[in-house]
Design a protein that fits this description.
- The protein is an alpha+beta fold.
- Helix content is 40%, strand content 14%.
- It has 8 helices and 5 strands; from the N terminus they run ααααααββαβαββ.
């Protein structure tokens, strides 16, 4: 049986607790309730928020939302769907900017993976990035060089090294995703990486590593001896 928010003691309502105890005191359901603002006929806003979480399987799955599947949830129309997606995108951008700041040390595949994995979260196409590092293996610049289809990524080596010269980089790390979550490099991945490594030797700007990132982990060409320094 549904209940109205006015029946909830004022001190227990999400907005009042926000003002009294701060945003960190709120549950995921509370946060969504504030963003959604109101419920619908027969459901208060907290019930709509709970339904949203249950439908997608928890807060960590919300990045997979789209306007289409959001609109299937009772109490969420196109406007609320857009507001939710904008909140998620803003949070993602803040997180990425704070975790891939210029100067961060990326001297190990695990560090690269932890800093870059959220770039690819929920992506259905391949995205190819290059990370340009200085002599201390600190990030100078990150560049998205290509967005491809779900199973093919083509980047010209010229673009990779042009950006390296512009950034005065000492080395390059390539990072791309496999939306299929199969972390094994394709023949195309191997050939392309080998060509970049050879060009890097000639240009004096080595390819330090190439990571393939999936939802559950990564594959490092360096760790698997596909790149020999």
């Amino acid at each position: 049986m549904s209940y109205k928010m006015m029946d909830v003691p004022r001190s227990e309502r999400p907005r009042e607790r926000f003002l009294k105890q701060g945003v960190s005191s709120l549950t995921n359901q509370d946060l969504l309730s504030i963003i959604l603002k109101n419920g619908t006929k027969g459901q208060n806003v907290q019930e709509v928020a709970l339904l949203l979480l249950e439908t997608f399987g928890g807060v960590d799955k919300l990045s997979n939302m789209s306007i289409v599947n959001l609109s299937k949830i009772k109490g969420i129309g196109p406007v609320k769907a857009m507001e939710l997606l904008c909140c998620l995108e803003l949070g993602k951008r803040i997180y990425l900017n704070s975790n891939t700041e210029v100067g961060v040390v990326l001297d190990h595949p695990e560090a690269i993976y932890k800093n870059m994995r959220y770039l690819f979260y929920g992506k259905k196409q391949e995205y190819f990035y290059c990370l340009y590092l200085n002599q201390k293996q600190q990030l100078i610049e990150r560049k998205l060089l290509f967005m491809g289809t779900i199973n093919r990524s083509v980047v010209h080596p010229r673009e990779v090294f042009k950006e390296a010269y512009l950034a005065s980089a000492s080395s390059i790390v390539c990072v791309h995703n496999h939306p299929s979550n199969d972390l094994h490099p394709s023949r195309e991945d191997l050939n392309f990486t080998n060509s970049l490594v050879e060009i890097g030797k000639i240009q004096g700007i080595p390819i330090a590593d190439h990571l393939i990132i999936g939802e559950t982990g990564y594959y490092s060409f360096y760790e698997n001896h596909n790149i020999i320094h």
